[in-house]
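Researcher: Let's do a round of design. I'm pasting the structure tokens now; please hold your answer until I've finished.
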């Protein structure tokens, strides 16, 4: 049996008429003709709780083995809490049920699950913004315009005559452009910000067009007709008030709901990459330095013809974006695709690991040549100190033995010498411990990775790389990227 699950909260229904009928119809389109379908519908129930009659009924039916496929409009319908989304997904996956979202793809791939969980996190973070709050008394006041007067939002102007908010023709037009670029052209917020700056459009409050400026506009429900007032408390450092004190006020919509929703999808789409960036599989994260200016290189994602590529780039290529007028000339280093670089470095590392102890010793000597000189002389100095203290102690003991001085007289000095020796020994042990030889380190790594170097999972590769490599210097010449590996000594 195929199950369709639909949910709408009372507030959502009131806010933008997200109707159950539309949800069910969209799900029904996915149902093959003649298939047995059952609808599970929670009307006027919050997505924050699992205690929903239809959801509970559906879970029971799944537990009974009656359901093989569940169709839902999107993950937010299922639950507004990440934890609950994951709980339900796991429960149903275990039961062998296929879970399908109409407005969501790849739910059965690892990327899909990552996207899904991120999306859940975003939804959780954002939910307060799209949640309608209607405290009657406050709302009545707001409708009279008393609170709306304080509302200054990009795209709108307050008309003191009518005590209402109206479109500001100039900025509203910018808002429309931003939404069109996002919803129709699927531009990223960064690209939109750059285009606005290039077009000479003044930014809100006279600042810069940041990615975040654009993102905030695209996620603001005011532009489709629902603004929030009474959200920040001016008397208390603009602290955000509890959600149930916010007041939703209808304002003139600048874009239609469909455009707004499509733009929001695009924001989430890109945000997935920004949020996921920290967990992207970059073998050399924070190890790569720019071969032209020596600064650490950053990583970023580019989407080309629908495919995602990771890149290393020198942040100093864009100094003006971060600095003022006195920014130094930008670095000329081009963006470099990360994958081939990572592959080359990994190939070098595995070649080394397979080379065997003799070659390691040779490599190790070369790597260690400079640095160990210092360390060796430090150790030697400590050893000399220790011998000196030991000689002094023996001399003193000899004097006591020959009754040159009394035991009582010698005791404090002996104690002092013992303490000094112990301290030098500790420092010596630390100095010796600090730097195992390069060959030793390679041995240790090899012992850990065993023979199955190629079968290593990604995070273990990363451990190996980090153990052995201090930095990777990247440059580009006519023949392409040039990689120089500096091994740790
Ligand atoms: Zn550079």
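Researcher: That's everything. Go ahead.
Model: Designed sequence:
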């Amino acid at each position: 049996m195929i199950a369709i699950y639909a949910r709408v909260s009372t507030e959502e229904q009131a806010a933008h008429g997200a109707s159950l009928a539309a949800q069910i119809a969209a799900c029904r389109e996915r149902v093959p003709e003649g298939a047995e379908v059952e609808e599970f519908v929670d009307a006027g129930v919050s997505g924050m709780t699992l205690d929903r009659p239809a959801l509970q009924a559906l879970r029971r039916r799944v537990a009974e083995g009656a359901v093989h496929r569940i169709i839902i409009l999107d993950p937010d319908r299922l639950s507004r809490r990440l934890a609950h989304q994951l709980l339900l997904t796991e429960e149903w996956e275990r039961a062998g049920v296929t879970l399908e979202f109409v407005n969501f793809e790849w739910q059965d791939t690892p990327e899909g699950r990552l996207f899904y969980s991120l999306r859940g996190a975003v939804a959780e973070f954002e939910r307060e913004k799209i949640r309608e709050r209607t405290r009657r008394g406050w709302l009545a006041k707001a409708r009279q315009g008393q609170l709306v007067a304080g509302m200054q939002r990009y795209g709108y102007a307050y008309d003191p005559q009518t005590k209402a908010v109206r479109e500001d023709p100039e900025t509203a037009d910018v808002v429309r452009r931003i939404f069109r670029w996002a919803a129709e052209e699927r531009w990223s917020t960064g690209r939109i910000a750059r285009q606005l700056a290039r077009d000479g459009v003044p930014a809100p409050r006279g600042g810069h067009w940041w990615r975040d400026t654009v993102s905030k506009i695209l996620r603001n429900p005011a532009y489709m007709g629902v603004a929030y007032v009474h959200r920040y408390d001016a008397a208390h450092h603009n602290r955000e008030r509890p959600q149930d004190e916010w007041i939703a006020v209808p304002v003139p919509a600048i874009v239609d709901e469909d455009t707004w929703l499509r733009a929001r999808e695009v924001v989430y789409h890109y945000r997935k990459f920004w949020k996921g960036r920290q967990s992207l599989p970059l073998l050399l994260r924070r190890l790569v330095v720019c071969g032209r200016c020596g600064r650490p290189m950053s990583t970023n994602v580019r989407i080309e013809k629908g495919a995602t590529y990771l890149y290393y780039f020198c942040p100093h290529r864009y100094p003006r974006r971060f600095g003022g007028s006195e920014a130094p000339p930008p670095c000329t280093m081009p963006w470099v695709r990360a994958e081939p670089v990572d592959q080359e470095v990994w190939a070098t590392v595995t070649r080394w690991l397979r080379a065997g102890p003799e070659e390691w010793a040779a490599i190790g000597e070369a790597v260690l040549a400079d640095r160990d000189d210092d360390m060796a002389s430090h150790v030697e100095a400590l050893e000399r100190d220790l011998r000196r203290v030991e000689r002094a102690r023996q001399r003193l003991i000899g004097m006591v033995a020959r009754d040159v001085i009394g035991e009582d007289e010698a005791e404090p000095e002996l104690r002092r010498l013992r303490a000094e020796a112990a301290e030098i020994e500790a420092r010596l042990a630390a100095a010796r411990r600090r730097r195992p030889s390069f060959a030793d380190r390679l041995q240790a790594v090899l012992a850990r990775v065993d023979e199955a170097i190629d079968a290593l999972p990604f995070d273990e590769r990363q451990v190996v790389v980090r153990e052995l490599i201090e930095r990777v210097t990247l440059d580009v010449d006519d023949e392409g990227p040039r990689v120089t590996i500096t091994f740790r000594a």
